[in-house]
Design a protein that fits this description.
four-stranded antiparallel beta sheet, Rossmann fold, 28% strand, ABC_transporter-like_ATP-bd, binds adenosine-5'-triphosphate, alpha/beta, six-stranded mixed beta sheet, single chain
């Protein structure tokens, strides 16, 4: 469970988040949508303990500030938008970084750590890449390796910042289906950000529309993905088509008159 009360973030003297309240129930999936610069990544970084903030963030009922680094790493795994890629590091070693909270100080990874990393590489079609340097992978392969590292961490909360932006449509579905399966089978709690609104609505139980650092709307996808809200906050011309899997968002081009 993730709970934010009146969270404010100021970066370099500018207030970016202006008092955000948010609740993600254990085992549910919430996706934050909103235009560029709205503060989506900032919000995720605050929840991941990567940024100072005012207000309160609690994870599984414990205030973030009270969690030690290692405890936090057992609870929450983050896939940032642009993770640091250590030059020359193999995909397997990178994914094993996700096991750090389980490895004793000055110790080595156990057979259990290696098995967890191998299983997750396999699930993400990356088995054949284990020995390759991460910085030689294609953008989409690398993005799956970033997710693999986070999943290897086996945390109860997963924070995903634009996790499928570099993926082809098939791998997009594979990755999101896998996350959803982990949510259903293991009670994983998911907080994501996404720009593809149709896909956002297909996977999340609730969407939060963040605009200029404030929650502009929150609720089930059909309540948030409306033509008027998208026009107001994205300045976009779209048609919303209702489908059994949720609203489908079709961008409309301006026609010269
Ligand atoms: N260190 C910083 N100092 C000042 N402003 C910052 C800093 N980091 C981010 N910002 C600003 O904070 C705002 C929110 O950024 P953030 O990355 O959270 O937006 P976002 O909603 O994730 O956008 P996008 O959809 O483009 O990824 C932006 O206007 C950004 O320029």
């Amino acid at each position: 469970m993730i709970r934010l009360d009146a969270v404010r973030v100021t970066l370099d003297g500018t207030e970016i988040l202006h008092g955000v309240d948010l609740m993600v129930e254990a085992g549910s999936w919430v996706t934050i949508i909103g235009p560029n610069g709205a503060g989506k990544s900032t919000l995720l970084r605050a929840v991941g303990g990567l940024l100072p903030f005012d207000g309160s963030v609690t994870l599984e009922g414990t205030p973030l500030a009270r969690l030690r680094r290692r405890e936090r790493a057992r609870l929450v795994a983050t896939v940032p938008q642009t993770p640091v890629v250590p030059p020359g590091m193999s995909v397997l070693d990178y994914v094993l970084l996700g096991r750090t909270p389980f490895i004793p100080a000055l110790g080595r990874e156990s057979a259990r750590d290696l098995a967890a990393a191998a299983a997750v590489l396999d699930r993400l079609d990356l088995g054949g890449f284990a020995g390759r340097a991460l910085d030689t992978l294609s953008g989409g392969e690398r993005q799956r390796a970033f997710l693999a590292r986070a999943l290897a961490q086996e945390a109860t909360i997963l924070l995903l910042d634009e996790p499928t932006s570099a993926l082809d449509i098939g791998h997009q579905q594979e990755v999101l289906d896998l996350v959803d399966e982990l949510r259903r089978d293991h009670g994983l709690t998911v907080l994501a950000t996404m720009h593809d609104l149709s896909i956002a609505g297909e996977y999340a139980e609730r969407l939060v529309l963040l605009s200029a650092g404030r929650v502009a709307a929150a609720g089930p996808p059909r309540e948030v993905l409306t033509e008027s809200l998208l026009a107001d906050h994205y300045h976009a011309r779209v048609r919303v088509i209702d489908s059994p899997d949720g609203p489908l968002i079709v961008p409309l081009r301006a026609r010269p008159s």
